[in-house]
Amino acid sequence: MEPEAVATIITRKHPKTGKTERPYRDKQGNFVLGDPAFGSELHHRENAILTTDYDEALRLVRNGFSIRMSAGDGTPPSLISAGKLTLSDVHEPSPDDIPDGGPLTPFSRDEVMHGLRKALVAKAAMIARWGSDEAAEAFLGFPSSDDADPSEVDLSRFRSTPLIEAGYDWAFQTGQPEAFHPDTRDHLRSLMDGGSSGTISTLSLMADADSALRVTIGTAFARWKFEFEPGSLLSVRELAYLAQMTEVAARNALAKAGIKGRGGIENDTAREWLAQRQKFVPTRTNLLPIDRS
């Protein structure tokens, strides 16, 4: 008979509140640990050890690393030394015991890629309307029509596919955001400009400001501007993208904070405001400009 599998969980009972604290994940899905080799400077963010892997975090704790812990009640997480933590073996850990990870995204990658398929169907319909059915079929990979099934589109045939995938990862800081480069941004802008057209009966999601596809592209552009063009003013819409809010909600939140959106918002002001937004996902430290990393 095989031994029953167990999992090791990390907890701490807060000495004042009595609440049970568990490992905290930051907005990018990382556990945040402190290397004792840094001594009194281990609390500094630049010295933090980040990992999305719970088993790796557990291994480091066992080796004397501190880890940020939270009671999950909205109070700020604290870096707790290994000696003050309790490691317990349990047979059925709850979701709270080992927090699920990953950065916040407003919609799935699959939803965005389905939007790209719809945009390609719309593009093929336009080619058929202004070119020929043969040209549209050569572009799409199968006969084009206004009611063509987007799920039949083979995305591996299109250069736009890796652009959208890189844009998604950069926009929401998931997967491989490092794949997004200046050339990627420029090609994506050209794609958006050229892919917004369709026919009266087949509209492209590139032209729909609220579609997952368009929001992804807009967020990717906004994040690039936010991090690499600090002298440029940010629009309310760009801040809404980064905060994962509607433009109306962002405008109201800015007004409540005493920030005027008309004419644009300066980068430092935008940065302070975004830091207080629950769904804002900061750019990974290793991808920031040298003077800010």
Task: Note the topology.
Layout: E1 7-13, E2 20-23, E3 31-34, E4 48-51, H1 54-62, E5 66-70, E6 78-80, E7 86-90, H2 109-130, H3 133-140, H4 160-172, H5 182-195, H6 212-228, H7 236-243, H8 247-256, H9 267-274
Antiparallel strand pairs: 1-2, 1-7, 2-5, 3-4, 3-5, 5-6
Helix pairs in contact: 2-3, 2-4, 4-5, 4-6, 5-6, 6-7, 7-8
How is this structure best described in words?
With 293 residues, this protein is α+β, with helices and mostly antiparallel strands. It folds into two domains: 84 residues, no CATH class; 179 residues, no CATH class. It is 37% helix and 11% strand. The chain contains nine helices and seven strands. Strands 1, 2, 3, 4, 5, 6 and 7 form a seven-stranded antiparallel beta sheet that branches. A hairpin with a 6-residue loop joins strand 1 and strand 2. It starts with 6 loop residues before the first strand and ends in a 19-residue tail after the last helix.
How would you describe this structure in keywords?
293 residues; alpha+beta; 2 domains; seven-stranded antiparallel sheet; 7 strands; 11% strand; globular; 9 helices
